Amino acid sequence: MPGIKLTVNGKTVEKTVEGRTLLVQLLREELGLTGTHVGCDTSQCGACLVHVNGESVKSCTMLAAAAEGAEITTIEGVSSRDGTLNVVQAAFQEHHGLQCGFCTPGMVMSITDLLRVNASPSETEVREWLEGNICRCTGYHNIVKAALSAAETLRGAQPVAAE
Amino acid sequence: MAKDFGIGASSKRREDKRFLTGTGRYTDDMNKPGQAYVHFLRSDMASGRINGIDIAAAEAAPGVIKVFTSRDFEAVGGVPCGWQVTDRHGEPMKEPKHPVLAEGFVRHVGDPIAAVVAETRAQARDAAELIEVDLEELPAVVNLRAAVSGGTAVHPEAPDNLCYDWDFPAESKDAVDEAIRNAHHVTVLELVNNRLVANPMEPRAAIGEYDAADDQHTLWTTSQNPHVIRLLMGAFVLGIPEHKLRVVAPDVGGGFGSKIYHYAEEAFVTLAAKVLNRPVKWTSDRGEAFMSDAHGRDHVCKVELAMDAEGHFLALRSTTLANMGAYLSTFAPCIPTWLHGTLLAGNYKTPLIFTNVRAVFTNTVPVDAYRGAGRPEATYLIERTVDKAAREMGIDPAELRRRNFITQFPYQTPVAVEYDSGDYNATLDKVLEGSDRAGFEARKAESASRGKLRGYGLAHYIEACGIAPSSLVGALGARAGLYEAATVRVNPTGSISVFTGSHSHGQGHETTFAQVVADMLGVPEDSIDIVHGDTNRVPFGMGTYGSRSLAVGGSAIVKSVDKIVAKAKKIAAHLLEAAESDITFENGQFSVQGTDKSLAWGEVCLAAYVPHKYPIETLEPGLEETSFYDPANFTYPSGAYACEVEVDPETGKVEVLSFTAADDFGNVVNPMIVEGQVHGGLAQGLGQALMEGCVYDENGQLITASFMDYAMPLAKDLPSFTVDNSACTPCTHNPLGVKGCGEAGAIGSPPALVNAVLDALSDYGIAHIDMPLTPSKVWAAIDAARPAAAAE
Fold this sequence. Notes:
Structural class of chain A: alpha+beta
CATH superfamily of the largest domain in chain B: Aldehyde oxidase/xanthine dehydrogenase, molybdopterin binding domain
GO molecular function, one term (chain B): iron ion binding
Oligomer: heterodimer
InterPro entries (chain B): Ald_Oxase/Xan_DH_a/b, Ald_Oxase/Xan_DH_a/b_sf, Ald_Oxase/xanthine_DH-like, AldOxase/xan_DH_MoCoBD1, AldOxase/xan_DH_MoCoBD2, AldOxase/xan_DH_Mopterin-bd_sf
Number of domains of chain B: 3
Pfam families (chain B): Ald_Xan_dh_C, MoCoBD_1, MoCoBD_2
Distance between the termini of chain B: 62 Å
Strand order of the largest sheet of chain A: 2-1-5-3-4
Order of helices and strands of chain A: EEHEEEHHHH
Protein name (chain B): Xanthine dehydrogenase, molybdenum binding subunit apoprotein
Radius of gyration of chain A: 16 Å
Domain Aldehyde oxidase/xanthine dehydrogenase a/b hammerhead (chain B): 21-139
Helix content of chain B: 25-40%
């Protein structure tokens, strides 16, 4: 069994895992980071999306061993200990961009990555960016609204008021 | 002006924080000390005889604790069905046993044959591959029409594959036949309501625990109704009395109906935990979900609508084949009957209605309620037929609807139900305005200039929600009451814990129910906690489905709060030395009318628990009340939807350009949440109409068993929606005047979209295309309709 060393949410992690262990299994089952979810087994749904070296990766598509030396950020890593929401999280709450919450961590991580590479996305760009994230509850309407609002806040303008 | 507090305010959801920070607690997030894992070996054949199972190699595999087969379940019952339908001959439906693990035969792909419990998930999965099943393939029954044409039977006790053959209302048959024979015009439509998979994003999961010292069982499960699971599994499968069985449904990642039912896996982990004396956990993967979660819809229908020369509806007749799958799921028999036949009046005063429904066993996954449950099927057949009728009669579709709308309430339909309130013209007006119907022709011309076909489609819907009056559903075959329970506990310092039998799995009850209580008591929302999902904490409950939580569960909370206020007034009267009749309660203050004497909410609450100055002879200390609310009637949300599409005639691709909804949900507690419910329902309805479809091949192989094969709507497939719920006629028979909003979007949107596409294709003379309207189907219809010369 390979030994691996990586950084998860700023902390160094050393583990010995079975070769077939997926990154998402390492996060959920070995490290107890259950905010990252598993919604499918074909890498379509995006509930397991995390950042690997700053970029969106579906953690069910990656072997834990392949994350050797990588810096991983999960939903827990972008959340403050006192529960204060960051700009993207706050926009999801303000615009009701979540219902059951299961796809939500993946959505937040995905939108965070989008706003890193595109500070002013159009509605169409948000919708196309989200092609790797499935939500069954919201019809995406309010997720898109939250993403556009978060983009505006991050650009320093006034947030879009909730309807 | 928008409220910022209580009923009518778009309060931000208090549950969001844990979901947004990754600290939600879903079943698979939990692990119990000493936990083992189960993997189910499932049938890869649709129909087969089990001649033998060799588990020796699997039992010897690393980490394996035990391999279970049906032999280990000989002493327990089958998975029960909760509703008995009586057929047109007065006979009860056929109800074949649904074993926890297959007994002798497998009847659908995914039917569990054996279960391996091991130290790790991977070991259980690996060992399952070592089980040798001598499975002899038998002919499979897949197609609905073929299933009822004689030949192979899924169950020997139903040789014609009929679960039941149901007429409703039986006494109307002759009059309907005659009206159709003599009518000026009869519009005829044959259609398929496609088979769907609910696919909540959280796959099902279950953990069984057993405490031998106290003989206590605990089941953690992804359920919409933990008390119902306790009842069904405890009483019918495992024989565990309520006080020895705790069922907890913690955070649940969506349900849409598919998590109502009691599933074999729940009974398995509960029993296995006792047999092995350690916790046993199961988590479905998505592929497993496709072949074990109950599916939805799957009707084949013929509809006839008789009209006079002015387009007044005279009679409606429908015949339906409804797929039950291989076994009866919990509510399956009532979906195509009592939740479908009773809605066939739609929004119209059609005086004569008759339907025949045959429920059919096939070698497919069990079919049960999926968001809307029977009502989408009724709405689709009515609204497609009305649209076709409008075209055939040369009457504008909106005008034909108006001509036939029910306008007087209460209204007794010819199909048993009585609508209490509604204003169908108001929602139609709003949707025509909101969708800019007047500007459509100009937009159509603009599309045409780009070679695109633009279409506009309307649909109305009515649904029966707030399920349901117990005496009525009992008479119709339900094996349970459908009330709801709530306890309101006022704590000594005035904070409040509300225990509700409704379950929240995305609906936001923790916020909405707190708004209701805050509004009634005039106390801050954050002093109120909503507790749900645990049979040991909540006294009783029937759970969440049929858009019932606020209308039924909310009403139970209101009843308890009313009792609290009544008792608190007595305490306040004693403390203030006034007559009880002189006490008023407003904004959290108890006052003596006409004086400046008053007490704050917290002072009275404290007195209830520190009864030093207290009417102890006539009043018990404490401030806690429990209520059961059994609704007097269903509620009847209604609405009008408009869809505008553009079809590319070269590819058949349909683009949804806009979708406008005008709903009447009665009073609304949290507009933000209600709009969100509509958005989600619309996405599922548009998914059904555009892209979703569960496909079996002729051998009963499930072709669509992953998100690679089953098309889930993505953000780029959908537009932003325009929704409005200002056309409000309050429900007349529950205390909040609410109707329920969870299913509307999924009910009304499929016919609106299909009507829009057929409007776009009107020049081709295409009368109907069955859902889903994929590019290949639309293109094929266009291609077939092109004159031969033009096609060359």
